[in-house]
Fold each of these.
Amino acid sequence: MAIAKILEHGQITIPKPIRESLGLKKGDVVDARIEGDSVVITPQKLVTSENWEKLLQVMNNVHEENRGISEEEVYQDVERAVAELRQEEYDKQKKTASGENHGNPRRTNTPYTRGIHRF
């Protein structure tokens, strides 16, 4: 049995043997829930290894397709994409308030983010 002390702001340090046994390291995500009179902490993976590999491949493909685009152009494209998303969210909230929300997915229009689906 390992004993841990609750620190300031409710923080608790999971004892090293338990962290090592579960392969937990700084920044990992866990689920904490109550079961009876106990707290159960379960490690969580937010992205599977397979999906992470797919994401890396997509990122590599995007990088290859956009060779020659300057860092400044990428920032401008991202800023435009964020502005579009914010405008869409504003419009969606406005439509929801008026009862005409359709929620159709579409693709982004900026050169660096072209072809990335948004919902």
Amino acid sequence: MILYFSGTGNSRYVARKIAEISGDDVISINERLKKGSYAPIKSSCGKRKTSLLLASSQL
């Protein structure tokens, strides 16, 4: 799972390139925060199952 925060698009570009190589999911933190989505993010890439919870100080 690749999480990125990008204001200019540079980090998004790099995150997508890494995902191409690794086969991981790419998730924009910007978009999740804009949508108000604070639900855990789940990924099942490879053999590990991962869960991540985003938090914002602007709640």
Amino acid sequence: MDEIREKYPQYKVGWLFDANDATKERLDYCISHRFDAIHPNHAYVTPEYVQYTHDHGVLVNVWTPDSEEDIRRMKGCRVDTIITNDILTAQRVLAE
């Protein structure tokens, strides 16, 4: 990843985590290697996780909260992007 970032600095770099792979070790790897974003499963994201990530300049783009409850929780966690299969529910919750 470091080589790609050095060779192509104009491109953003992110890591799509497996459903159970959103560990602090993975996150710290992304931070230390200057990733622009992480893409964890929403089930593993907490407000503290997002704050820690943001404190290190990394965006948090979650996948796939589809229920109103999960989308509302991600909004409360202050994630940067929500990738969902239920656009109408997401639009309604995020507009509140």
